[in-house]
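Continuing the series of single-chain predictions for the mutant panel. This is the parent chain; the variants come on the following pages.
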Amino acid sequence: MENKYIAYMGTDNLLCKPIIDGERISLISFQAMYMAGLKETDLIPKMIMDLEQIQVLDYTQIPEIEREQVDYISQKLRVSPFAPEDLAFLALKSLYCYSWDNLTFQEDAILALKVESALNHILKKISVEIAGDLIYQDSLLPYWVRLSYLRVMSKIPEEVIGRSNLKSVACFPNKKKSFNAFSTMLQSSSVVGFNYALEPILKILNRFLIHFYSTQDLSGSSRIARAWGEILPVVRYFNNDASASDLVSGCILISQDDATTVHRLVADQIDFIMMHELGHLFHAHPRKLSQIVGIEDELEKRHELEIEADKFAHEIYKSWCYEAYDNPEKLETKLNEYAALIEAVELLFIFMRFVDESKSLINEKVGRKSTSSTESTHPSSDTRLSVLRKLSGLEVNSPIVQYAETFFDDILCYISGLSEEEIQIGLEPVYMRA
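Parent structure:
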């Protein structure tokens, strides 16, 4: 019998609409190359488009949603309304990815950066135009949250869903500047909410990492300084110093494999976060919280709930692999997918640690109070990473993970050596800089 969550991926097409028409989508890429002065004799990039990112839908109109879920989602969106131009920009930014295969000369790299810059300029301009339409349709939100929900639910055994709090769960994007999502239990159903910018931000972070990882042989004395300049917009966003439209990156991908890796890492990271939230619901954590609020060891108990949700996510994926135990060929494929998932989640925790520590560093230097992107209710990213590694039993043998740990530590060391004035200049909006 077909898994109903996989079936929904097909029927959802009737609920979705693109925020921009197909003809214009293809023209934008050519406009960027033309604006940058690209000629037929120059290195021409391959364009990879993630079309699901421009799909939007009304999350309150999903057929299986319950009335109390509709009311809850509607109330949350009223309290924290979206900026339509940010919504449009992030959808478009997440749609396009150039692959600069065979990039070997400095002039090619400079031209590639010009094309990326031109694309960002065009997308910002179009986002303002689209916002005029979206402002009257503010119930239309990015589809990627729903798609992740369907992907992970399709991996949870039906008997687990049937005997748990996962029988009736709705999801939606919300406007909350946090790496982590949230979950809540209503009278007879539950809801999971995601930061609507999370998928595009993770794309920027993974693209940033893969760019520097793939170009190690081109490293120079100013490499770490350039890396800090590239990743600063993400840190500023979580520090409430930047809007979503500031989330641009000049990092170029030098192969189609790199672009594919970025896409895979982001999908696995989003799915892990979704599965983590479903773990909270499975164990009825939202209700258990009321029993520990105000007690002496409240924070320790909260951390235990977070680790339990991580363990749930891990156990589901591991059991999914074991389904193929009697089929060696299928088992090998699933074990490779499992190892890839662990790699992606390791990077997720490394990203979270870096953002929190870089925020703390820059705020300390300028005399501002710093708050965690993952909130104090969560254990440290290092703790969660350590638990994940013990659960998986895998050694830290991924070259990308090994590189990431050293690379982000080097950037943190660089930040710690900056003066207050240098930090302040970096925190200023781009249009205010000399």
